[in-house]
Amino acid sequence: MIEIHNIHKTFNGNKVLDGISGNFESGKMNMLLGASGTGKSVLLKCIVGLVKPDIGSITYDGRIFANNKLDIKQEIRRKIGMLFQGSALFDSMTVNENVEFPLKMLTDMDRQERQERVEFCLKRVGLEKAGNKMPSELSGGMKKRVGIARAIAPHCTYLFCDEPNSGLDPLTAITIDELIKEITEEYNITTIVVTHDMNSVLEYGDNVMFLYKGKKLWEGHSSTIMDTHVKELNDFIFSNRLMRDAKKVEEIAEEERQEEGQRQEDDKNRNR
Ligand SMILES: Nc1ncnc2c1ncn2[C@@H]1O[C@H](COP(=O)(O)OP(=O)(O)OP(=O)(O)O)[C@@H](O)[C@H]1O
Ligand SMILES: [Mg+2]
């Protein structure tokens, strides 16, 4: 489990994170949801140690991460897999070399072990035949898969995905979400997914945190998100026409259920 407490971050007088706390459990799809510019990526970068928070604590399975000794930080870092916003593959390397890269950097595996691990990870994301391709030859969805294979290659315990399905068509987006969920559950990884995609949230969000202007305004399971009374979250969810229509259909169905219940009650009373 990752725990964050009271995280603050200001860039040149611009307060981006304003006291965010929360827990991210292992084996669950933890999601950070929010509009563009609201601080999701900065929070994720604070959690992985790419940005230093001004105030606040971060612990990985009880071990303090931020501001700790370098060797403890490095040990935790070795267990972190990261899928960056936009995949961030190395353009001049083949798919095999991209996935092998963190193994060379972070492990003492020999060449043979590295090759086997690369093969295993590419197979796990359904790309066993793409090892010799260059990133420029891949579709957007394939690039994300390679990014996921590279992230999990060093047996990660913690997986961070920044907008894993942005720029993908809805069907491919679902397969990427599904893959992340399967891997999270299979290896009991502590996964944090940053997104502004309500489809992903509704389908896969075990624990969703809604960020708004650097604050956490709501947290809960995705199944309860449609019933929220937080205005900013409601505005965010129902900014989309499809979601508004879905809500209307749900309200009509609820009214019909209540009317039917009342009818049955009346019938019972009449027959007494
Ligand atoms: N290194 C930095 N220096 C200065 N300002 C930064 C830096 N990184 C982020 N910011 C600012 O922090 C704010 C939040 O940025 P962030 O990238 O976290 O947004 P986001 O919620 O991830 O948005 P998006 O959905 O568009 O990716 C923005 O105003 C951004 O300009
Ligand atoms: Mg971002």
UniProtKB/TrEMBL annotation:
Keywords linked to the UniProt accession: ATP-binding, Nucleotide-binding, Transport
Give one GO molecular function term: ATP binding
Pfam families recorded for this chain? ABC_tran
The cross-references to InterPro entries, in alphabetical order and at most eight, read: AAA+_ATPase, ABC_transporter-like_ATP-bd, ABC_transporter-like_CS, P-loop_NTPase
Query: Region Disordered: which residues?
Result: 251-272
User: Where does the record locate the signal sequence feature?
Assistant: none
Q: Where is the composition biased (Basic and acidic residues)?
A: 259-272
List, for all copies, the residue spans of the domain called ABC transporter: 2-238
PANTHER family of this UniProt entry?
INTERMEMBRANE PHOSPHOLIPID TRANSPORT SYSTEM ATP-BINDING PROTEIN MLAF, PROTEIN TRIGALACTOSYLDIACYLGLYCEROL 3, CHLOROPLASTIC
Q: What is this protein called?
A: ABC transporter ATP-binding protein
List the source organism: Rufibacter glacialis
